Amino acid sequence: MQITTEKRPPAVLRGAAGLAFAAALAAMATGAASAPAAAAGAPPAPSYDFSDCPDIPAGVDAADWKCEVLTASGPLTLGSRSIPALAPMTITHAEGPLPDGSDGQVWGALRSAATAVPGGLPGSTAGRSPLLALSLRPEYGGRSDFYSVGDSMGLFTLRFRVLGPLLPHNCVIGADSPVELHLKRAGDSQWVSKNPPVIKFDAYDDAFTAPAADGCGPLGRLVNDRLGLPAPAGNTITLSARYTFKTYDRLPPR
Q: Is 189 helix (H, G, I), strand (E, B) or coil?
């Protein structure tokens, strides 16, 4: 299974009024007085990998900064193609107070595998050639303003790399103008575990636009026709996610 990671140099986002996306999830979940204790005989909570935690700014208190790891998957409709379930995405970032007291965030990484597009490229349905296979792999789009107001969960941008035996590697949806997701919370967040802290939630966006794929070589028009791109409307994503965190003073030495 082909897996990618995209890490960027630390970019601290300042904003005294902003609440980080994942922190807001925790606040939502604390509508209950406290997280429930694990039931006897319950399966162990999933383990999370903190190896993508980014470096935090100089001069901050490691005990006040959290590395947050979120895993999410769900159905995607992009243009005229629907994928029942994207391969899980793992998103890592850090947050905490800056020396001047304002809120800060540092991007970490997005990891995901490719997911097959049903139907692939057009061709004979009988004895379909594997050369006609088509997959999408989400990648970080360069912006992640994880501020939350009510059910609005901020902004997150994605590119989708279009993969297939006949396509060049730089075939990408949103290469210059990434897909902008303005996710909204669906229902209540719930505690899965208190130790380690794990919170689950659902979110969706059914109003984003999807640009055309670029860099696809001679098959570019065929790819966009097959995917129904560009698509100004009709695109949807629904994510079921789990999120956890550790403070930087509790992370293992690098």
A: strand
